[in-house]
Amino acid sequence: MTRGLTHFAMWVGVFAAFAMGASARAEELDQSVRALPQAECTEVRKGLEDGVPILPGFRQFEYEFAPNIHGIKGRLCRLHAIGSGAHMEGTRIRSLADMHAFIQASLEHIGWRETEETKRFTDRSQSGKDVFALFKNNAICVTTILISPAPGYIPSPDTKTDKQVYLGALYPYEREWWVAVDCFHL
Q: Which among 25, 85, 165, 174 could disulfide-bond with 170, CB atoms 3.0 to 4.6 Å apart, if both were Cys?
């Protein structure tokens, strides 16, 4: 048990640095991870679609890890939803915090849990980015939520100051959402 937790803690540290875009060169680990099996990924997708009130829902893909400074290789299961605020927002989702809360609650409902180690993945910015991770059965799901002005949107003076666009001042159709839940076994 202790060996497994130590191994898990090492991986979480590596993936946290990877997910948060660490700028320091890290020692290459040349380690492999594997995507959740399709049935497990489908269970996560169903949990998200049952609990997160967005349309059209989540698409399920499997990808190779992108080249990274840590030498981590393997595959991951990605559940992906994109759309304008007109599609992703509603009476229950009005903000990045609302989206985070619905996704986290949906995953926790099917047994995923935040641990001290997964808290290392947490990354929030004022520019519309939120990252967090949950753990279950030696697997991690890292959720990345991005919200930005829709392509082609030209901000008016009342929605920006000093080159910073205030996303809350935009109409839903002027915002674009990108949500990815990347799941893999350690």
A: 174
